[in-house]
Sequence to fold (416 residues):
Amino acid sequence: MKNWRAAILGSVLLAATGHAADDFIDQLDGALTVSAMNDWFRARLSGTLDLEGYHFSQPAPGFIDATGNSLFNPRLSLFLDAQLGESIYFFAQGRVDRGFDPSDGSATARVDEYALRLTPSADGRLNVQVGKFATVVGNWVPRHGSWENAFVTAPLLYENLTGIWDAVAARSGAMVLDWAHVKPPSDPRNFPDDKYLRVPIIWGPSYASGASLFGEVGEITYAAEVKNASLAARPALWDDTEVVWQHPTVSGRLGWRPDEMWSFGFSASSGPYLRETAAPTLPSDHGLGDYRETVLAQDVAFAWHHLQFWAEFYEASFAIPGVGNADTFAYYAEVKYRFAPQWSAALRWNQQTFGDLPDDAGGRETWGANKWRIDVAPSYRFTAHTQLKLQYSVEHSAIGPREFSHLIAGQFVVRF
Fold:
């Protein structure tokens, strides 16, 4: 814990030196922007440097993969935006970090996003996009970046690992109940460490590969996408080369913005949640396409002066042939208030509940750990390019090695 606290403290002191660093970033921005052919071609390289740290109870919450109680997780993200004329746009995102999700592993470099977009008309009614990019579902994904996100972590529904495995097909409700540990061991030290086998409702921004159509007509926005992996798919499966396109995932969102303050959306998605490596475990009369994740989601956003509000509601169902549907409902409500140009604070309530599945005794049991979590996050922007966020979270779980768990996080972001 001392390492990441020292790193963030050093970063704050660097930001406090103020305008000299800010001027350097402004000059760097100019050097990373190019144009040619009378501005017909324009390109810009930008990025963020995130220095974030976590202190938590074991087992590590969400996607965090660490053996101790503290983790320092630096990350460099680079964004390339290129425009050719008025109709062709290309963007890409590359990262250097310890893995897509916070981890104590070795540093690696990879490309998370790349896409080519065609806009035939200037009114924005129709856009066509192909590549690897974030899902169109919901309203958190457009603000999931470290600079835009009011918190260090994602909402609970984007990172809570359920009792569903993607490497093995469940043969019975009792098998899923066993995976979900609805009857945990009496000694918390013997709680199984199998989170690497589990999947959530939606894995973060879900950078799967595919194509999308989207646009805006008056107060109505629409988006539809065909991807190679479901919303629950892990990052290792998002690349086009990792999944055979036999069972694509189809998702969409319809939005309504009646005025400048309000925004409403309805999303839906359906796609197989099992990996191809699960094929040998399937019953002889079923295929991967029979094990589908279906999601219905609603979202709302509101902004008035210094107050912003967002909420999302997700109903998800994992189909298990011969057993039924493993249903879960998750939502969050988030409010952010800016007290001054530099000071702001955010509060988020998260909750997820689970339905029932048949057990071996002829009854039914809840197939997951009902949870709620409260996140509190003050933030301070030193300059137009630097900000510090702190977060405290307390989580209550009906099932698990402990009833309450706590997380403290800090994140210093430099944007260039």
In short: DSSP finds three helices and 19 strands in the chain.
